Amino acid sequence: MRALRAAGELEDEHVLDHRQAGPTVFRMLVGAQLRRLREAREITRSAAGYAIRASDTKISRLELGRTGFKPRDVADLLTLYGVTDEAERQAMLSLAEQANTPGWWQVYSDVVPSWFEAYIGLEQAASVIRSWEVQFVPGLLQTEDYARAVIRLDHTATRSDIDRRVDLRMRRQRILTSPGAVKLWSVIDEGALRRLVGGAPTMRAQIEHLIEMSELPNVTVQVMPFSSGGHAAGGGPVTILRLAAHELPDVVYLEQLVSAVYPDKPAEILHYWDVMNSLSVQAEPPARTAATLRRILGEL
Prior knowledge:
CATH class of the largest domain: Alpha Beta
Strand content: 5-15%
Largest sheet: 6 strands, mixed
Number of helices: 13
CATH architecture of the largest domain: 2-Layer Sandwich
Distance between the termini: 41 Å
Structural class: alpha/beta
Strand order of the largest sheet: 3-2-1-4-5-6
Shape: elongated
Number of domains: 2
């Protein structure tokens, strides 16, 4: 998957920071290493599960990084896989311990569903984020007022819940301006820019903010104009994350109303890269983004 890059995309220099990445990526790292060790010894998931008094389903979840690790389980699996070097064992156990450390965003767990917490962990550990948005401006590029208007569309949220969710969204955006900032490349449908979320003043401020953000060296914004006709991503928004932990595959994230899907087969990931690259070719080029946004701004 590392070879799948759009023309002109820069190599990333992002370094994985455990203080920002939180548990999600470290679970994936530990799980991937345990899978490699198991497969190298030709041990089945069932046999591995038996060794730690668990099912093969739990081994699958551990290897995919979808659950936390008990130190005893990791130690027992390392023994089963023939890892006897003490330094190697301690390195894995230390990584597993980091995988169990709560991320900074978990203080918002009362207002954020568990399926979205996992995404935040991936987002915070990404070196490159590519996204396609149909209905709204991407969350990482939203103003506070626009974010509040979007979140208010969830009529079940209380005022306190809305405030905390807005605060979380603003904190997530720090990855765009912090040292080793993520490279964000977003293609936004023109309809999302003309939809008056929060009213005309809020929308004008939002588009002005997009113009400012698109000037950052690590942020690329493109507009998919109505005049482009149909395109390959008619199914809805798509996000692809390239993680700073280079031994991990790219992650495709498809958000739904009350859940999210992570297609993880190599052929599926390749397909979504093809779609994303196609959208970038079909949209207005980045050099025209500011002019396009100013034109839309003048028509609001």
